[in-house]
Amino acid sequence: MKVVTAQEMRKIDKICSEQFGIPPSILMERAGLSVVLAIEQDLGDITNSSFLVLCGPGNNGGDGFVVARDLLEYTDYVTTVLVADETKLSVESAENLARLRAIGADVRKLGSDVTVGELADLVKASDVVVDALLGVGIKGEVRDPIAEVIKLVNLYATYVVSVDIPSGLETDTGEVLGIAIKADMTVTFGLPKPCHLLYPGRELCGKLKVASIGIPRFLRESKQISRQIITKQAVRKTLPGRVRDSHKGSYGKVLVIAGSKDYPGAAVLTSIAALRTGCGYLQLLTCSPVDKIAIAREPGIVVKAVDHEHFTKEDAQIALKMMESADAIVIGPGMTCNDDTQGFFEQVMANLTKPTVVDADGLNCLAHNLEILEKVSVPLVLTPHPGEFARLVGKDITQVRYNYELSEGFANEYNVVVVLKSATTIISTVEGTFFNLTGNTSLSKAGAGDVLAGMIAGIAAQGIDMKEASICAVYLHGLAAEHYNSKEGTMLTSELLDLIPSAIKEVES
């Protein structure tokens, strides 16, 4: 499913009106009705429920007037409060306010018909509060009286439904503009927006429903919209299949270059993750004593160890020789980043011949010399968490977290795939950006990223290009964590490895 920014959504609305003769009034009518239908679907019988509809100054408020009018087809208990200057309403909003009054609805203005204290009592007394205060056009921090109204809703409301976006969210970033509604459900129109996917906005949206309101399908699926959500259906189409008449060579060979005396576990996690995703042959180039730990955990790993505690520049020739028989490579997990490993890393990177995933200490080495990317001619995936990406781009971590525009710029500048890991992982490529919504806090543990790196390479080795392998692996990685059936957060990283097969099975079925 495609994802649009506020500007892209405005452009779509304009095209609907100017090229296809679908006026804003029709879209507003269908938007309001879709909210009511979503409420009914979520709550069931609403004939005895009481509603408070809060309407702001923009078209979001106009949607709210339609919601109130349609709710009156179900129940008599609907109160609408206008939190805006009525003289400044848009034409469509003013028309729908007039229609609402024409049927004798209970419409009040904050300040003249109802005080803030009385509004608090209305919020407390209502079964459902509908938030139609602010939409995608909000600029700057939320000011009173709307800020005061939002505070009341967050304090006293039993169940909140937001129209399009929770009021107070910045549409394109998910950031809170001073204060924002905490919704139980958000009904958005046509397509989701970044604020529905990126924290803190994603958490404030509650359950997200995307309603079709008459925007032509080819507009919603336009190739000009370069961002989208990863879906199970898309992953299912991409996952490599299995053939009965096959052998280990049929499913690709992965070379993992990882580990050191100080960090032995990362190499093991990466290697087993690649095997769990179906690759047929796994070679691990590591340092002593990681080789013994790896074989003890999984005898199927083919290990070669250099005879010192971390990689040195002299070891690069061994890596380049092993690379010849590989289909995909991972370099970096647990490798450390000192002068010796820096020299090793740069020599290997300058001579890459196979698709490669750079993770963990590989990224730390890369941050010291980004120019090495100019020497790489093979498909490359970088898998930074926000701290690692901050080092790569020379910015503060607060500037890179969920910054899809920054990751898009990096991906385009260096012709790489950037997998920016977080609660919503963002995959940026030269062809577009993909948001992943699977996963939970069980992944907030050391080693989870090493597992992901191995999964990407394991899928890529089976003949899947690096972009698609990254999309599949990120989705499955999160889904595997969701399959853990004990208390969230208590999962061991090693247990994540054993949940990969069930995640793959769910997608395939």
| Rg | 27 Å
Name of the CATH class of the largest domain: Alpha Beta
Please bin the fraction of helical residues: 40-55%
CATH topology of the largest domain: UDP-N-acetylmuramoyl-L-alanine:D-glutamate ligase
Count of runs of 4 or more consecutive helical residues:
21
Number of strands: 18
Shape, principal axes of CA atoms: elongated
Fourth CATH level, the homologous superfamily of the largest domain: Ribokinase
What is the total domain count? 2
Described by strand count, sense and barrel closure, the largest sheet is: 11 strands, mixed
Determine the oligomeric state from the structure: single chain
Q: What's the arrangement of strands in the largest beta sheet?
A: 1-9-18-17-16-15-14-13-10-11-12
Could you say what the CATH architecture of the largest domain is? 3-Layer(aba) Sandwich
Mean pLDDT: 96
Cα distance, first to last residue?
Answer: 20 Å
The low-confidence runs, each spanning 5 or more residues with pLDDT under 50, are none
Instruction: Report the portion of residues in β strands.
Output: 15-25%
